[in-house]
Amino acid sequence: MSTAFSLAPLFRSSVGFDRFNDLFETALRNEPGSTYPPYNVEKHGDDQYRIVVAAAGFQEEDLELQVEKGVLTISGGKRDVNEGVTFLHQGIAQRAFKLSFRLADHIEIKAADLSNGLLSIDLLRVIPEEAKAKRIPINGAQKPVLQ
Questions:
Q1: What is the 3-state secondary structure (H, E, C) of the chain?
Q2: pLDDT in tens, 69-84
Q3: Residue 29 has what pLDDT?
Q4: 20 vs 58, which has greater pLDDT?
Q5: What pLDDT does 38 receive?
């Protein structure tokens, strides 16, 4: 009996992480009910990411984005139902939701847009100069002077 092992759950709620320890932690804490609404996490370059949430029927005033302590929270309030309507079939969910994404260090929200039922959130990793890796030259011909 062979068991397939998928790393997909590791990437569902993290953006910009390259360290597996943090991804494993997040996967272990992932709640099974966090699949509504459906969403994609996309990588568009070394430092560019996008989260796309299917927010069918929600308007801008129904949605809220908040970043606190490195966690991006996207929440949508329950929409008002028209009292005079009788649904013969109701396939569009009308429940409130809350999605949370842990952001890696130096990830900034650049823009958010709601178009055609899709909420797109653009993220960018902006690494300050003092945090960037620096190449150290090796002076093979010279002996270091220690005092």
A1: CCCCCCCHHHHCCEECCCCHHHHHHHHHHCCCCCCCCCEEEEECCCCEEEEEEECCCCCHHHEEEEEECCEEEEEECCCCCCCCCCCCCCCCCCCCEEEEEEECCCEEEEEEEEECCEEEEEEEECCCHHHCCCCCCCCCCCCCCCC
A2: 999 999 998 766 677 8
A3: 56
A4: 58
A5: 92
Q: Is 85 exposed, middle or buried (0-12, 13-18, 19+ CB in 10 A)?
A: exposed
* In the chain, % of residues over pLDDT 70: 69
- The CATH architecture one would assign to domain 36-78+92-127 is Sandwich (2.60)
Question: Is the CB of residue 23 less than 8 Å from the CB of residue 11?
Answer: yes
| 67 Cβ neighbours under 8 A, 6+ residues apart | 73, 103, 109
Query: Do strands 97-103 and 14-15 pair parallel, antiparallel, or not at all (unpaired)?
Result: parallel
Give the pLDDT band of residue 30 (cuts 50, 70, 90): low
Which of 102, 99, 110 lies closest to 48, judged by CA?
Answer: 110
